[in-house]
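As described in the Methods, two query proteins were run sequentially through the folding procedure within a single session, without resetting any intermediate state between them. The first query and its resulting structure tokens are shown here.
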Amino acid sequence: MVRLFIIIVFISSSLPWARAQGIFEGPTQFIPVEVDRMYVKGINFLRDHQNKDGTFTSPGRSDTYGKQPGVVGLAVISMMAHGDDPNRGPYALAIRRALDFIVKSQNKSTGYIGSSMYNHGFATLALAEAYGQVNDNRLGIALKKATDLILNAQKRSRAGGWRYSPESSDADTTVSGAQFVALMAARNAGLAVPQESLEKALRYLISCQSSDGGVGYTSASSGNGPRTAIAALCFALAKKKESERFKAAMGFLANVGPSGGYDHYYHYFLYYAAQTYFHASGPQNPRLWQEWNAENIKRLLETQQEDGRWDSNFGGSFATAASLLSLALNYRYLPIYER
């Protein structure tokens, strides 16, 4: 699986180590030491708080999410995103344990992973990113079954998206976004994903977008930052960045600001927004990503705990994995992070 090494950028007057940095191109990549130190502290926290069965725990608030396949999947991806050898590097054992947990959590007959489509989507994404990089012959079979379940579940949906259960006939934008990204990652990994399935999902997301660019939960009302970032990322992955829908979503995100305007799902927002701003940026507007990234780095530096974790209402394992993945675009080793 090809790894893409591209521009690393940090420009912000609020970050002392970034003031003198411009755009770094070519074969020599530059990661500011503060960012890499923060990232390593975070993945070390996950590794050191992993249970032998591959799940994760965290001190402080209740961390039941760390025992769910979806969050285990996000933790796997955050480790792989640092670029260490997943088979022999410092996180190889943790990656192997986590993937083993995901594979064992899969229903062998249906392909369903976990107890909700949230779990299934993020776990499938982890399988897709690990497939071809981690030496585990089970991953391809598990990924194929998981992908087939997503495709079959969509056929039951009147709206063309997904909801909490693979048997659901309705849909919402958050679950649908997770399945869409998983399908794109599976396609990147070489699996056959029908274009019509992707187009149906995009039509559903568009139906939930209001005139101000915001995306609602099950309809085009009450748009917020997290859901709009999810839809915008799906548009970008589908190569729809020149569409009015994508531009409207980015306009909405610009108005809500770098925190997403929705503190309860702050780290969830960061995970999607980082990718969205990266895709929205380009030769014509490079500062869009640069400025958002610099502000995100500043906020995460201020809120990282001494032991390397970040905290949220959903527990330290999820908050840490999501925060790390919002920083992972600075490395860009994983296929899903290619423009």
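Immediately afterward, the second query was submitted; its sequence and tokens are:
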Amino acid sequence: MIVMKFGGTSVANFEAITRTIFIIGGKLDQKPVVVVSALSKVTDLLYRISDAAASSDSDLTSQLMQELRTRHVNLASDLLEQSPALKESAVARVNAICDKLESLVNAVCAVGELSDRNKAIIISNGELLSSTIICFAMNAKGIRTNFIDARKMMVTNDEYLKGDPIVEEIEKRVPPIVAEAYKGMDAVITQGFIASNMSGEQTVLGRGGSDYSASLIGMSIDAERIEIWTDVDGVRTADPRTVQNTKYLEKISFEEAAEMAHFGAKVLHPLTIEPAVKKNIPIYVLNSMNPSGKGTAILRNELIEDGVKSVSFKENIKVINIFSMKMINTSGFLRRVFEIFSESKVSVDLISTSEANISVTVDASEKVDAVVAQLSEFAEVIVDEDKSQVSVIGKNIVRLNGMLKKTFAPLKRTNVYMISQGASFVNISFVVDREELTEVVRDLHYHLFEVEEELEQF
């Protein structure tokens, strides 16, 4: 078996879904478990619906619900135009999902209060709608396809909007459900992102969680491979929206991919790698708009050569500097500091320490007032905003001759506020002013990936 996950742009419209079904049709001999996201931009629309309902804006809520319903009904009608019976069933199912959603949304709108549980239910409907339509469309194309409700397989804790998967329970549930659904079928289809807790209440894995769902399912069925189908030709040496002349990476290690995802690369959800590593399942990042392309293979470490693979970045971060003379020769100080971050559920990325100072980075969206207040009881705390983090990622890069010189040579005129080197020798990260980020990333990419290529041409 293989797992094929298709993101929002791969199921965005009639043309994209037709292309996706063609790709799936070419893999039927490998028994695909298909995982789909919501149609492109639909999850954003559902967030807007939930916000409008919470604000008791009935006119806007009604308008947005109609937009949601019309888009999916029209798509189902277009895809199934040649199969009238299936078209009627699909449209009826789409309307039933929208009717149920609208009842909940109207109830929220009436009271003007939106719980996390109800918000999770609302934003999960994109995946339910897309998978329903695609399931009907696959059957209309002659691919016998069964529908699996992911909420019966994917189990999380009680965090409704950012559920933490209960892996042991998922591993127990997935194989028999998939095996039963596959009886007499060519393929099965399910949803990414959505799940339920142990009580059966709706949860979601958080934005971008469909990749994570696919990886957890792949781990549970001991998949031969996990394919992440998106709108780019695999992983590149930098974000092509920021840097020209990026290079395509044919293969990278699990560790490199995890670092890229964690430190800003948009191709994969940061948690996707862990379940695949557990069973040593290769992941392939492929382009649904270019199905014949090789994409990028993500493989175990010993199959990958040493060297720099990418320049990743997080555009908007905060640096929290914590200074206290009490740090000197005092055991337990670091533990006390990071317990405060943990209690406030503030996630730390980079850490740098000296004798009397700790510097950490957090995403700009993190609310740190409570953390700063607690830390200020025993330390001087300064929060620097409008900063960016840049990470050079690759296998054993710190051990490569001249790598540090290559990395920091382009930064002669740039203020560097913090440097952090990963203990695994997979990344070197540093912090710069946000306004200088684009220039820094472009210069760094040029020195690491383009200079030697230019010299070879002479």
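The longest helix spans residues 84-111. We note this only descriptively and draw no conclusion about the first query from it.
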